[in-house]
Design brief:
Layout (H helix, E strand, L loop, with lengths): L5 H20 L2 H37 L4 H52 L2 H4 L7 H28 L1
Helix pairs in contact: 2-3
Length: 162
């Protein structure tokens, strides 16, 4: 048997990958714990990396003006927190007002919607009387339409099959 043939190389590589997969599958308890740990740390690390790249030009500008790095980071942190608090308070008050208005106006909105739906269901738009039993009207319409459709489907199939 030739050990240098391509078949032997690929077959042994596949067997090694399968063996590694099997052995790693036996350590699922370790990987579950590891992935839980990574999930906990992933979001803060990504946010920190994002802020690092966004704020690095400001830090460099401050260092060029002889401001110590720690002081520049502190100033940017305070500015960022102030901005976050201002936006939160402004948007929070806006959302609170909008929610109060929605709760106050919700009964009237529902009544208006119901009136619009009844107006749209009026026979002048569709020519169908929705005031009666819809189930009976639907079955009557199907009784009229189904023979027409089945006849055309059968004609089409017979024409296709010859």
């Amino acid at each position: 048997m030739e050990y240098r043939s391509n078949f032997f190389k690929y077959a042994s590589a596949i067997l090694i990958v399968l063996a590694i997969t099997f052995l790693l599958n036996q350590l699922h308890f370790f990987f579950e714990t590891f992935f839980k740990f990574v999930k906990v740390l992933a979001a803060p690390v990504l946010v920190a990396g994002l802020f690092y790249y966004l704020l690095r030009p400001f830090i460099r500008l401050a260092e060029e003006n002889r401001v110590p790095r720690a002081l520049a980071i502190g100033i940017l942190f305070i500015i960022g927190m102030g901005f976050f608090i201002f936006i939160t308070l402004y948007i929070g008050a806006f959302i609170q007002n909008q929610t109060k208005q929605l709760v106050t106006n919700l009964p009237q909105i529902i009544l208006n919607g119901e009136a619009r739906i009844n107006e749209l269901l009026h026979p002048k738009y569709f020519g169908i009387n929705f005031s009666g039993n819809l189930g009976q009207q639907f079955t009557a319409a199907l009784r009229k339409v189904l023979p027409f459709l089945t006849g055309h489907i059968l004609q089409t199939l017979s024409a296709l099959t010859g």
